[in-house]
Amino acid sequence: MKYDLGNQFDVYPMGRPLGAQFREMVLVPMLRQIERSNTTEKLEISFESCRSFGSSFLEEAFGGLVRKGLFSKAFLLDRLNITAVSSSKIFFVKMTLDYIRNSKPERLS
Amino acid sequence: MNIGESFSQEALTPFALGFLSAYVFLKYRAHISERGAQISDHIKDIEKLSVAAVELWASDEDKYQLATEVQLHHTLSVQFFEDIRFACHKRRLEYERLMFDLFRVTASDEFIDQNACISEKKTPNSERVQEIIDVSSSLITLLRKVRADISSLEYLAWDTWRWLSLVGNFIKKDLLNP
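^ inputs. structure came back:
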């Protein structure tokens, strides 16, 4: 399953509100679909067509998947494949993975 | 004396080996020099990013132009992220961490919100300014150390080993198993 963030969502994804929107409208449904399927299919998100990123967008969209208790880190690191070709975009790919690895589920009040 | 004998293989071999060694040495020196220049340019990009970010977060002026400058300098600073990361060798994880931190402190939270009023004035954030100074100074210091390290024998050995690995992988994947 493939998704091009720049062409299908926003070329300049920035800000927490947009990050939350992307998480709830795109990431969660697609990841749930993969979770329910009995295959080893992965969700591939391409960053290549985006022009720039906001730190808050990446943290809210991807780190939020763990922080909100929606998916486990292990599941995301196994089934979510974030791709880019150019060196500048690879920075954001690595940063996104860093957000996923370092996010902790929020405690329920 | 036969001309052919004077230009025998025994006479040419040391000459050829010497020529080849000198060529390889000069090419490697040029490569190290180029890498040092790349690191120096990267340091300048980070300095410009830090100055723009401090100006953005320390002022109460119209933030749009300042924010776009920060965005520009950040985009420039990550153009060769993988190359610089590789050049950092043993310090690459620290470099990666500091680059992520720099991005977070210069361009997160209230940086640019698509719904925010562009000309909205804001209050200076001294804590953010201090974070920017701390992270950028650590990053620049690390890069200066890396720039000094790339001339060392240890770096030469590691770089050579890596090049041989790449050649080996190429031969194995592309030539033997096309």
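Residues 114-121 of chain B have pLDDT under 50 and may be disordered. The radius of gyration of chain B is 24 Å.
thumbs up if we can close this ticket
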